[in-house]
Design a protein that fits this description.
Largest sheet of chain A: 8 strands, mixed
Oligomer: heterodimer
CATH topology of the domain at 92-273 in chain B: MetI-like fold
Structural class of chain A: alpha/beta
Number of helices of chain B: 12
CATH class of the domain at 92-273 in chain B: Mainly Alpha
Order of helices and strands of chain B: HHHHHHHHHHHH
Helix content of chain A: 25-40%
Low-confidence stretches of chain A: 1-6
Shape of chain A: globular
Number of strands of chain B: 0
Strand content of chain B: under 5%
Number of helices of chain A: 13
Mean pLDDT of chain A: 89
Strand content of chain A: 15-25%
Mean pLDDT of chain B: 89
Distance between the termini of chain A: 55 Å
Largest sheet of chain B: none
Radius of gyration of chain B: 24 Å
Chain lengths: 342, 315
Amino acid sequence: MNKEKTNTGKLLEVKDLRVSFFTPAGEVKAVGGISYDLNYGEVMGIVGESGSGKSVEAYSIMGLLQSPGKVIGGSITCDGEDVISKSKEEMSDFRGKKVSMIFQNPMTCLNPVYTIGNQLVEALRAHNKTISKAEAEKKAMEMLELVGINNIEKRMKQYPHEFSGGMRQRVMIAMGLICSPKLLIADEPTTALDVTIQAQILELMKDIQRKTNMGIIFITHNLGVVAEICDKVSVMYAGKIVEQGTVEDIFYRPSHPYTHGLLSSMPRVDAESYERLVPIEGSPVDMLNPPDGCPFAPRCKQCMQVCLNKMPPYVELGGDHRSACWLRVKEQIDNKEEQTNE
Amino acid sequence: MAKYTIKRLLMAIITLLIVASITFALMNSIPGSPWLSEKTPSQATIDALNEKYGLDQPGIVQLGKYLGNLVQGDMGVSLKMQKNRPVTDIIREMFPLSAKIGFFAILWAIIVGIPLGCLAAYHRGKWVDSVLRVICTIGISMPSFVVASLLLSTFAGKNEALRVFPTIFDASLGFRTYVLPCFALGFYPMCYVARQTRSSMLDALGQDYIKTARAKGLKSGPIIFKHALRNALIPVITYLGPQIAFVFCGGFVVETVFSIPGLGRYFIQSIINRDYPLIMGTTIFLAAFIILMNFLVDVLYKVVDPRIQLEKGDN
């Protein structure tokens, strides 16, 4: 029936999205015009340091921006629906049904005073008014089984404090998936977990993604996680996407100095013991007074005069790989000149 | 649970004995005696009365005797207010009226205070919040005799059109006679509950699980009343427990202003009249009530928040 809708085409289209926070100190342009597409069944990573706007961007898809944050421009189209023009009422029908979200800290994201079963059933019944309680409970138990929780009957009646961190994140995933959403936004879902549990959760998400073919936006600052699970990556810096491409593009052919910096500041398994990690010098941009030019310019080792004055345009590097850097613009111009000279 | 209840019961008895001893000591350290009134009786009469009621004995003996009787449920007889009537009888007669007024007072405080607190928290910083803040600040800072007098002069005063309630309490008038005292008695707790609910609701609404609830697609109603409120109730319950005991045992001021023959008025008058057994009786009664309410509050904590353990190794 919906075959063409479920398998091909764009699940999510974000165009020139701008989000600002109107604080007493002034307007903070947390997201300054970003665009990307996500196809059905694709997994995209959004990478960036704290304050780069990656979570804010995700919250605006969910309509979860809290005052004083506001979407001030651009469009978000999800599964053919315009998200930004939706009313409050329509938004709460949309959340959880079409798009779900799981959060960073599973320790605090479940309500401590209700049982797991109660919270799962509630998520289902919020969008399916006709389902009976018994059916909803059955479905909740299926979901718990899907995310690898044992002893389900007993677990349903337990409270969040009786679960470990990893188990709680599994419950959160089950809760996010219970209405079979088309898109799952995972906001640093493994950051608060220890490394072995991180691997388990990633494995689980990969597995579920394969089974359900839903789209995932994976927000993280951990490039290792990106390599593990994503098809493509957007690198964000100071509210802008500075580089976009497939995982291979980003890891093997990084073209933006910031992406280079991120990669070389990450520990590598194949590194010699004497090699040191290379930090990115300087500190993140003051978002209240962002520079005129490229936001990364003040920290960039290859910074040129033009970088300080003007924001670079995107340079297409083949396929879906694009990067916003004056170095690439310069390369392109040089290449063209060579071609005409020949 | 049974073990826990027994433990609490034993603690309650010890607490009551201490309360009784301290009250007794304080009571005897203030000058005066129950026999003094406008006309001072002759020394011989005083001596005779003291001997009759055992007041001539040393304090420690009196206390011992009193505690011994208390354990058997005997609180002695009134010395002055209702001469020779057993204190237990007086409490039994006075308490129901005070409790009835207290019940309705606290009921409206809860029914109105909690939703108002939620409303203010939900509309934080908006005009609704500001208006409620002003009302609550007034309610908390205004002494109850002012509230009661204002109500009286407005709704039972000279203005014929507004004179819908009686000035003096009269049980035969039924419902109408309860309105003003219940309102006056419940106004302070209502404002306090609203303020407390507001601040703990603000805390709860900022928690991550509210974000989860919103991400699930829940509407504002369930988010506020199911997810936030239950987590916000603990501080409110903590306040309400002892407050219920106080209000049930009668607001002295409100009972005086409306001339209600309740326990609260008796409590204060017994002190003024140095009616020793009555002072002891009402104080111990109030203390026992507060202890009981605190126990109920602790049990309620566990109902509201499953993480709370009543004792080590519980669950």
